[in-house]
Write a structure and sequence with these properties.
globular, 2 strands, 46 residues
């Protein structure tokens, strides 16, 4: 799920638990301002 700085959902995907989270993350279409920050789950290093 991608949210803005106030926590409002911007984009999300529903996928089965068997899907690789990194592949789901890569399918997001990021069109963000240049000052944006993207944080992910600490388990991933991709």
């Amino acid at each position: 799920m991608l949210v803005n700085k106030t926590g409002k959902p911007i984009e999300f995907y529903l996928a089965p638990g068997s899907c690789n989270g990194v592949k789901i993350f890569q399918s997001f279409c990021f069109d963000l301002p240049s000052e944006s920050r993207v944080y992910g789950d600490k388990i991933y290093n991709n």
